[in-house]
Structures
1.
Amino acid sequence: MHIEKNVCESLFNTLLMNKDKSKDTDKARRVLEKWNIRPELWLVDNGRGKLSKPYAKFSFTNTDKSLFCQFIRGVKLPDGFGSNFKHKVTENDTQITGMKSPDHHIMMQWLLPIGARAYLDKNISTPIIELCHFFKQLCARNLMSSDMQDTEEKLINILCSFEQIFPPSFFDVMIHLVMHLPEEAIQGGHVYMRWMYPFERYMPMLKNYVRNKARPKGSIAEGYVADEALTFCSRYLKGVPTRFNRPDRNEDAPIPTHEFYVFPSLCTPIDKGVDTKLDRELWAKLIWFILNNNSEIEDYKDEFTTLMSPGTNLQANFPNRFKQKINHLRANNESSISNELLALANGPRFANSYTACIVNGVRFVIESRDLRRTTQNSGISTTGHDGTKYYGVLEDILEFGYLNRCKVVLFRCKRYKTNNTKLCVIKNNITSISTQTKWFKNDQYILATQADQVFYLDEPSKAGQRVQSNRYWKVVQEVNHWKIWDQDIITETQETDIIHGSTSSDLSLSANLDSLTYDGLSRAGATNFNVSPEHVDLDDNAYEDVDDEDNDGDNEIDVTDDSEDDLLETNNECGVVTYHTDEDD
């Protein structure tokens, strides 16, 4: 977790040219000149006693940086997914500040790849996107050990590409530690079972215990003991809301056991339902949709198909014939007719409409209500029988009531046409769709349990490009809900995930980095800011390896001097570095 945060911080600040935290410093440019590499990035004397710093292609220009900050300002995340990034962008759209570890996690895996693809060259953005997808793959719900072994080899190419792009000062120990993460995942299991986010969320609670700033440790201990005492007492309170019996924010009601596929499609409404009157045509259409999605009554449909005359409309005639047959068998005390089958055959009695609900612990909100909120919970996706993904937004939530308290919940969706490569573009594992063309206008309903939640990000506009040209384009981002299951840590086979999870095999690193070239890394005709020569003078030992000639060929470094500072000495037996002072003598 902290490796991801530190890598994101280094990469993010370098892209945005943050003077305080960027790795592309003035001294780093002088190192390039000292090592005689990448002459296009050397500091240039402008003839007026100042040095000009050329723009690097691995950093955003001022215009692109402003557009990227505007893109981050418009990001709307699902409920409980992350903080509001709108408050982290400065008023002049030049910097993004105040990000904590969870914000860096979201920035690295969901937001930064989109900005890098839009505002950087392909040969520079591709390795960055691959590194971001590596962290996303590492945090997948179903972690495949074979994927981690393949990723470990691909990380070598990614970091080699980074070495051809960024200055040497970029590569600190945190960049090196990325190489060990796949092996650590194989040995230690899922990352989300080991990361420190729960403990970081607990730290502010401990800080709030401080009442006497002169004795912070004592205040924390006193507050912790009081909290533990109240927790112990609350376990014996009956009928009183406590932290142990209070439902979670998006907790769903337990789904009762049903023998039919459609009846478990339930939800927990958030708002008060409104009684909805549907016209006769739509009512009949929805009844057929519910019946047609029940594989348990296929025998009745096959029987009716064999008995009906040619040209008979199955959709129009089967519901009534099915109802008559089931009622007749139930009247004759047929034991095979259960209460659920009787309720399904007689059709729904009423329909209620909602604007928000919770399904499988996921909050869904219709689009008209979602537009007024700072979060985004209206995006949905469904998977067809052939594995095709369909994307859209939620427009209405209908709950149908049957006999014996059986219920069915349907979502009315507005789906976008994605069957054309011009309307759905998948590049670098990033899916962009056009929302201008609608699809399935006559087939808008799905079962609530068939919907997976996604959220959409505006496609960033490039400099000199009309905003209207990208107005209808959205970037699709999958939502992973962190719920703990009782299953193996490392799975070797893909399992069905009903809680919107992800599999590491779905996020494989597939970009070909060998074909990328890095001839020039400076932007022609662009300079950053003037630098005084005295601010870029380097020490002779800075970023410089030990020269054999300076050490008379004995490969030993003489660190002694005439001062009274501590002397450094190496133990030849175990290689342990020890310090000796005059007091020890």
2.
Amino acid sequence: MSLADMCRDGVSILHTPVPTGAVLLVMGLVRIRKSISGRRGKLRASSDPTYESRIQAAIQGIANGLYKSIAAAAKEQNVSHQTLSDRCLGVHKPRRLAQESRQLLSAAQEETVVDWCNLASTSATPIHPAKLRASDTIGEFFEMQKKLDDNYNKIPPEHHWNMDEKGNQMGGGRKNTGMKFIFSAEDSDCYRVHSDNLELVTIIECVSTAGAKMPPWFVLSEGPAPDIRDLKDKVGGVSFSPTGWTDHEIADYWFRNHFVPTAEKHCVDPEKPIVLTVDGHSSHEQRAIQRAAYDNGVIIHAFPSKTTHKIQPLDVGMFSSVQRPWTKHCDKCLADGVEIDRYNFIHEYMAIHHVITPELVQKAFKKTGIYPLNLSVFTDKDFAPSLVYQTTTHLPPSYPADIPSSPMAAPSDVDEVDKLMRLDDSEEEDSEDDTDFFPMADDEHDLDSESSDSESEEEEEDAQPSRNDTRITRSTSLVSGSIPHPVIPTYNQAMMLTKEELWYELQHMYEQNGALVQTTQILTAQLDATNAHCTMAQRALAQS
């Protein structure tokens, strides 16, 4: 008999007296022939890309009642019976999730990142891998600072400037000053006079890494101009806008007529450029300012979006140091009978402007890591998303529409108990009644059980798999979100069941346990996906 003949007869091949090596070779050919004929062998998940999909199809088929048992599902889908059984019971996880604890991102987080990458690509704004972490953005900013400093062979600190606007309210604002006052112990209500003037004045401050500060620039709302002739050398200038905020024209005028002349006075090396670091407001990046910067040898460097609270010196170390003295000064003026308005605001503000000292400025630059340059000034904790953060934005399609914040409500078991009591009465009347003591999943199964009584004995013998299908259907409702209370039979009811019926009930308990484990995994994945989406939403807004 040739090898080809033996391969065609896979049953009798083991009875053919051939050497051991030939047997191994022939068995290998048989497996190859079976694979070629369309009957695939049981491959491992690591070598078969469709293995996991077949496992999932088998689990879904068991839940839907397509297969009568785990063995039938394993045979039909050509997967390992033990693996399928363990997966149904929740003993093992898929290969993709088995090592999830060792991964940097969970499976839900990976899917979220992919969804955001797809969303960005469809909007013609693809995400660069370096942009996936905020720390990479900060690192890129510091690398640009270092590269700029190296290209010009150490730019002097007198040439590095930081500019930003601060809004001050004429009444001092509503923040608490932290001061303590004496009240009578008999007074249940304690009051203190505080100004309610919330009119806004914008102040443009600019400081250098050497500790120098430029005279502040003020932006008032449209109206009469205050008399500041006595502050000519202390104030940079005054502008007016409809809202009291800066606009493109004011920013351009400030840059050309105040910043450039003042910064040139502080230059110590004409061969080195002047560097101005600003936030990404549109008024700072307009073409007019870019043209003026190019003409005057000024390099403008913008902070990454949504990071100025950490790396902008004016925000980190100076504006907060000015706000509390300003609020105290406003309260003192009100106590002295002096009302702060647009005519005396600048004078009163300059009275506390001395709190911005060279030491404070240098400390702020050092804290942000800008000067001296410190690339490791921040840790991973500084880039963690805010735990209390809400926003509205566009989200990928996979974002869950409804995430339960509490355990899912179980359906009422009153109907199930009623059915069980009716079952007890029927068993007393007719001991041969083979009605399952477990309640059906819905009324549809009750109609099926009533119609089955009028059928032949052969059809009644085939009714046992149908009962197993009913239990599997209940497991499907469990996976989809409805967790029924288990109904425990009485001792007499259990004794009336045959061994086969007890085996089916035990099998049902295992399947229900597996469905509970699967439901828990689904809810856990939804929660992980929600947390991951919040993180990605914040980072997406940071890039906008």
3.
Amino acid sequence: MSGEDIGNVNGIDSSFLGHPKVNGSSNDSDGECNVCCSDICFIGDYNGRYYPAHKSLLMETSGYFREYFARNTAQEASKEPIYITDVEPPALVQCLDFIYTGQLNITTKNLKNFAEAALVLKMDGIWDYCVAYGVSHVNIDTFFDLRMMAASTFSQKLLDATEMFALCNFETLMSHEEFALIDKTLLLFLLEHKRIKMIPERKIYEAVISWINFIPSKRRHHLPELLRRVNLEQIPIDYLKDSIYGELLVLEDTECRNLVEEALFCHLHTNLSAEDGSCVLTRNSMVMLSKNLQSALSYDPWSGRRKTFRKTTEFEGSYVSCSVGRSVYVLGDDRSVFELDTFANSWREMAKMSVDRSEPGVTAQGGAVYVTGGVAMATGKGVRTAERFDPAKNFWEKIPSMKKPRFRHCLAASRGFVYAIGGLNNNNTPVKLVERIAPKQGVWMNAAPMKKSRSSALCVVKDETIFVFGGTFVPDDSVEMLNASGSGWTTLTIPIPKNCIAACAIDDDVFVVCGSDSANEKDLEIQEFRLDGEKSNWVEKMPELGQFGGLSVAMSCT
């Protein structure tokens, strides 16, 4: 069959037959196809037009046609068109042309049609073209289509590109008429990272409510989860009372109603509020303590807000600290213990430890404070002893001693155990040793040792998983993660901020106090980094941190 013969078939788009791969080359005097014409089939669109194409090329480039011909072997002897009704005709023509030329004429107007065609026809080559084009053309006009395309196909490249655009243009997106079309995953992502571009909390709340009200029957159950990510206490009290507390969706949900009432409580109790009328702490916040406790500062990395606490003049010497609920407990090397109540903004002296110890490990577990090891002030040697403090009873009790003496070690609580990790022995040698105790059983047991010896390391617990990084005598920036079973450590390759001096986990984020690029040793900053290996660009310069020597985390007033 010649190209002319094919062109005479009723309904065929003859313009498509001009393709050299279909009509044969100039070397064929009779115009016969180079590829056997029995290999040619016809693809029909929903308008009834037919387009010839080589079956072998269709099967090579399209998963759809491979599956089709595997199911319909009789098609080899038939010239009945294969109708593709789920693809727009112009996109179908270009997809067929793509198998010969490897080229597409993609624009922002036809990208959606090409993407849909690529998914229907299972043409990976066209899909890769669409993704590459979409990633490089994210703007306010294309964002919503690209986001829906990313969410429906789970394309990680498109998901990342649309997330980054949304972070940088959150306020613009909130006022867009299609804002309610974004997926819940992205909305949560934006609410949790809105510190990238500070926006009044009233606007944040209004965006959440408009998103819920778009399909209230299907979305109202998401309101508590979303409202927890809005700093309601930073919204003016009149708007809280008249608009938010009067919103039917809020009133009908107990958790939402409680969130609003707690925000109102913060406004009404001025002695618990900062100068701008908001609560001392809005959610989990970093509490930084200066040497000798002459200064104490809370910092909310979500909003950038700071709150200075009252001073205490009764403390001297070095210390370690940890938090239980709303209180931060400071343990001095002279046995002294002080409590900073972040809710009442007050200090008080607590019961003293049973022994004096310098550079011990400290953590909180089950509402109690645990202290282990350290250097005995009288002998200058590391000790094995351990004790536990009950804040409710203001009472210290001795617990079994560790197997080995150590100091400058990490103490961390996870999965019902308290872990003593690394540190220095009495030869001033860093160790890999890890021990753990189950408070109810009261026996220290050896656990899997770390892969590297570390002392003065930093340790955070996120989702019950222990991460250890930094410290002395460590030649690289590795992070070690204790496996869920506690049977071994995994080394993670993560870009850790340099010169870290303190760290804490707040909700789903890890924040560190570290040195900046400045040569000034006191020029410090706070950085966030992610334990999945993706480094955040978020940095908060805080030169005033040079005076602080500790870092802890205290719960919010909610």
